[in-house]
């Protein structure tokens, strides 16, 4: 943009600021990276975090403002206390792996700033459901293969399947169960409150397959505690009478599942000695309480 110097009359060249078009393009790139990062967590933690880092870099370089959402304030307090606890632990280096993981909380800031429309959030839930569906299919294949192998080797099926449960795209069955639970609850919310039109049937198909993988994954904290609690809350918000049907749903599921899966459910109150983790949970709870009594304020560090 050329201006005229009032004293000399000579033209002065002034560099133009960023155009509206470039700002929109940068915003679209940041949104795409954030969306991809949030979706990719269902398939690869590494890919998700790389994409999140790229999104964060684009936002910081472009000067876009990240706002702290109200729900993030207690999380921020927790993170500050975690750093203080590490510094006061006597061996801060041991806690560095957990301190580095603070980075992953940036996804909350990015999502709050860039995923602003209901349609964008609905699309993200559908992406989670799609990847969750694919992960469930892979997990069910792993489950059936392990089941067949155990029968061929004449092992105790309960112990054999429990020892190496389905993982889908994840590296561990606990990660798999947690991711599938979140995807299933978000999909449930979309089916109950969203406007899916002709995609509703597809959503229920995905819901059914992910639900089956959740149960056959045999992670009790997921399908006996986390998912039922979330489901009851969502149904209560949609229509209270529906929440009362959840016990009937789980009774029907208990009858329908294979015997060794039913055995896993019963093991929550009647464990198989050292095969199940019930005893370990008690030991960890007692140990944790002893640690709190010995170090009531800052603990012994994040590790």
| Rg on CA atoms, Å | 25 Å
Task: Give me the strand/helix succession.
Answer: EEHHHHHHHHHHHHHH
Q: How would the global form be characterised?
A: globular
Share of helical residues: 55-70%
Poorly predicted runs: 1-6, 12-16
Task: Please indicate the count of domains.
Answer: 2
Give the biggest sheet: 2 strands, antiparallel
What is the beta-strand fraction? under 5%
Number of helices: 14
Query: How are strands sequenced across the largest beta sheet?
Result: 1-2
**Mean pLDDT level:** 88
- In angstroms, what separates the terminal alpha carbons? 57 Å
**Topology, number of strands:** 2
> Structural class, please?
mainly alpha
3D architecture notes:
By secondary structure, the chain is mainly alpha-helical. The protein has 2 domains: 20-111, no CATH class; 117-270. The protein is built from 14 helices and 2 strands; from the N terminus they run ββαααααααααααααα. It has helices at 20-40, 45-62, 72-87, 96-100, 106-114, 118-153, 157-163, 173-193, 200-216, 220-238, 240-243, 246-256, 259-266, 278-294, and strands at 2-4, 11-13. It has a two-stranded antiparallel sheet with strand order 1-2. Strand 1 (2-4) and strand 2 form a beta hairpin. The protein is globular.
